[in-house]
Amino acid sequence: MIYLDNSATTQVRQEVIDAMLPYMSRSWGNPSSIHALGRDSKEALVAARSKVAALLNCDDDEIYFSSCGTLSNNCALLGRARFAEANDRGRHLITTRIEHPSVAGPCQYLENLGWKVTYLPVNREGFVSLKDVEKHTTSETSIISTMWANNEIGTVQDIPGIANFAKERNIFFHTDAVQVAGKIAIDLKAVPISSLALSGHKFHAPKGVGILYVRKLQNIMPIIFGGGQEMGLVPGTEGLSNIVAIGRAAELAQAELAQNREKLLSMSKIFKQHLSQVDGLIFTGASLLTQRLPGHISFILPGLEGESIVMRADLKGLCVSSGSACHQGIIEPSSVLKALGLSNEQAKGSIRISASSFNTMDECTKAAELLVTILNTLKRSVNSEAPTAIA
Ligand code: PLP
User: Fold this and answer.
1) Residue 150 pLDDT > 80
2) What is the DSSP letter of 156?
3) pLDDT category, 391, cuts 50, 70, 90?
4) Which of 11, 30, 139, 355 has its CA 20 to 30 A from that of 249?
5) Nearest-angstrom CA–CA distance, 72 and 289
6) Nearest atom within ligand 1 for CA of residue 200
7) CA of 230 to the centre of ligand 1 (A)
8) Contact (Cβ atoms closer than 8 angstroms) between residue 203 and residue 249
9) pLDDT at position 328, please?
10) pTM of the predicted model as reported, rounded to 2 decimal places
11) What order of strands is seen across the sheet that includes strand 116-120?
12) Residue 326 in contact with ligand 1 by CB distance below 6 A
């Protein structure tokens, strides 16, 4: 099997499994307990926080552990909205039309509560323009939220540009960086982001653990209530083995970032080179590889359905995705692709390939060749069926 669906989830690294296992079998105390077993767990919790902070170049006490990227996005956006309401700040939020549902959902919820939400358009390559952010900012704007990189089309936004603008205007700026960890450097000392979300399972930690970063003095209020863990922002007994795992994954991601990025970029080139041979194929998202998530290529082939391509590939042992895995089960064409200006018909034929450091160059060449064969075969069969369909 060749797995090229790493934007959906990644394989847990053996080093990460090795680090987390003792926290299930040997040292399974509650970090809040004051006895030896609890203290062991507390120590591991503190160490993991430090490792994540090192990956993001921020202070340890700006890192909060959560259960997933979805929870981190919700805590940041709704938590800051609560703070804005409690402090008589404006009730206007600016976001984009291509956000993941874990950002779009809280935005819609706030709209239902009476907030004004501006959903900025993106251009054909999926970029939001800083000029648009500026144009729509008013004295009432208290939150801006734009994703760092898009899961479906791989486009990487100008996050430093938007973050600096928000800082100048004293506006809280959140970014969903779930797709970015381990692929693009995140330097929170250099880029004035107010809050940021990450998810462990996108960079080789297990599912069930996420990160919420909140810059010091950038207040957010809790949206869930409990025993006060994670400074009261994400309460609930800490999932210690998963937290140890994300700490180790962060450490590896930091150590291997430059090398991983180069490798993934070379893989993108292989995919692009092979797929360019397919007549009628249109790449989606940013056209420059340096403005895309490394290792991520997405495209549409008008006339074909993404699902059929995925199923054919699956039969040959190749795992890729049509649109976003998070949207699977929903037949609607992806709203991200529609935001690019594609028709419903075009948006149906979308495919995403996403590599990780587990993949080899050989695998990528094999996968790309296989996809080219599948696409050409499907195209021929659709073309030969066409007269019958019309009749
Ligand atoms: N944001 C983006 C861009 C994603 O791709 C995903 C998951 O696919 C999420 C948020 C949600 O992360 P999680 O699966 O950890 O809830």
Assistant:
1) yes
2) B
3) very low
4) 30
5) 28
6) 15
7) 21
8) yes
9) 53
10) 0.96
11) 63-66, 210-214, 195-199, 172-176, 141-145, 92-96, 116-120
12) yes
Per the DSSP assignment, residues forming a β-bridge with 321 are 352
Atom of ligand 1 at shortest range from CA of 150: 3
Q: Is 121 left (phi over 0), alpha (psi -120 to 50) or beta?
A: beta
How distant, in Å, are the alpha carbons of 198, 297, 300, 387 from that of 276? Answer: 33, 11, 12, 28
Residue 83 near residue 220, CB atoms below 8 Å:
yes
- How far is the C-alpha of 272 from the C-alpha of 156, rounded, in Å? 17
pLDDT at 382: 84
The H-or-E segment that residue 354 falls in is: strand 350-354
Strand 195-199 and strand 282-283: the pairing is: unpaired
What type of residue is 324? S
Rounded distance from Cα 199 to ligand 1 centre (Å):
7
Query: pLDDT class for 384, splitting at 50, 70, 90?
Result: confident
Q: Say whether pLDDT at 390 is over 80.
A: no
391 or 111, greater pLDDT: 111
Q: At what angle do helices 36-56 and 240-275 cross, to 10 degrees?
A: 30
Residues 6 or more apart whose CB falls under 8 angstroms from that of 167 comprise 173, 192
Pocket of ligand 1 contains residue 100 by CB under 6 Å: yes
Q: What is the pLDDT of residues 165-175, one digit of tens each?
A: 999 999 999 99
Alpha helix (H) residue ranges in 190-297: 240-275
Q: Which two tokens stand for residue 340?
A: 């690019």
Q: Which helix (H) or strand (E) holds 65?
A: strand 63-66
Residue ranges and CATH numbers for the domains of the chain are 14-255 (3.40.640.10), 257-378 (3.90.1150.10)
75 is an active site residue: no
Q: How far apart are alpha carbons 53 and 98 in whole angstroms?
A: 28
CA of 178 to the centre of ligand 1 (A): 6
Q: Per-residue confidence at 206, pLDDT binned at 50, 70, 90?
A: very high
Residue 345: the pLDDT is 87
